[in-house]
Amino acid sequence: MKTITPNAIIAKKNMEKIVMITAYDALFAKLFDEYVDIILVGDSLNMSFNGQKDTINIGMREMIYHTRAVKNGAKHAMVILDMPFGAVSDKKTALKNSIKAYKKSGCDAIKIEGGADKADLIFHLTKNAIAVCGHIGLKPQMVRFEGGYKVKGRGGEAEISALITDAKALEKAGVFAIVVEGTLSSVAEKIAKSVQVPVIGIGSGVNVDGQVLVWSDMLGFFEEFHPKFAKTYLDGASIVKKAVQNYADEVRNSIFPSKEFEYKE
Ligand code: KIV
């Protein structure tokens, strides 16, 4: 089975919506693979998988470990490694870490949070054959700097035009797609219309070129916090809890294992 390429993602603009989901291991990547175009190994794994309060304290080592696992499970979807906080602080570090990501995880592309401020650096990477997905709007790696998760696009014309400038700078730098997070839907629509590369939204409305959700939010496993924009397609946590409670009850009451689960003499 062929893996989806950056050019195939670009070709979907104005043709069909792009479906992206996060995954952090081979087990779930394999379950999601046939239904999605892109699997993002997001640094959100530091919160949902690792139990931390934000995405800041995760490094290349962990991102590579989880991306390699996802690559082992995904045969069709493009797999993107999300560059963690600090991994692309300057051009030299960014290229070194991107090559490491490619070689050690087998990823098909990387994602970088940042807009016009990161355009030169991203151009340096794309020139060196690294496929890059941009990420603008609400950037979770800015959470400590900005003092929280702030919805973007409410700041009037100056903010809107800065976001459009970001998208255009990323396009010029050679990205194959741009994630736009936590942005007013009317603004995200303008951003999508201002560039030829696909804009993939999260909490940014329907008038963009595709959607991404964090799997543990959309399948109802992450109980700490539920973002307003994340539709829950499964009540995962309560289904799992009921099943484990049932198992525990059966073990405690010597119901499991019954004869059918024993080896024959
Ligand atoms: O880390 C992540 O999962 C992400 C998505 C929210 C786009 O960056």
UniProtKB/TrEMBL annotation:
It holds the Pfam family Pantoate_transf. Transmembrane segments: none annotated. Keywords: Cytoplasm, Magnesium, Metal-binding, Methyltransferase, Pantothenate biosynthesis, Transferase. It catalyses: (6R)-5,10-methylene-5,6,7,8-tetrahydrofolate + 3-methyl-2-oxobutanoate + H2O = 2-dehydropantoate + (6S)-5,6,7,8-tetrahydrofolate. Mg(2+) binds at residues 43, 82, 113. The keyword Metal-binding applies. Binds 1 Mg(2+) ion per subunit. SUPFAM superfamilies: Phosphoenolpyruvate/pyruvate domain (SSF51621). One of its GO terms (cellular component) is cytoplasm. Its main location: cytoplasm. It comes from the Bacteria. GO terms for molecular function: 3-methyl-2-oxobutanoate hydroxymethyltransferase activity; magnesium ion binding; methyltransferase activity. 3-methyl-2-oxobutanoate binds at residues 43-44, 82, 111. Catalyzes the reversible reaction in which hydroxymethyl group from 5,10-methylenetetrahydrofolate is transferred onto alpha-ketoisovalerate to form ketopantoate. NCBIfam families: panB, PRK00311.1. Homodecamer; pentamer of dimers. Belongs to the PanB family. This is 3-methyl-2-oxobutanoate hydroxymethyltransferase. It comes from Campylobacter hominis (strain ATCC BAA-381 / DSM 21671 / CCUG 45161 / LMG 19568 / NCTC 13146 / CH001A). The gene is panB.
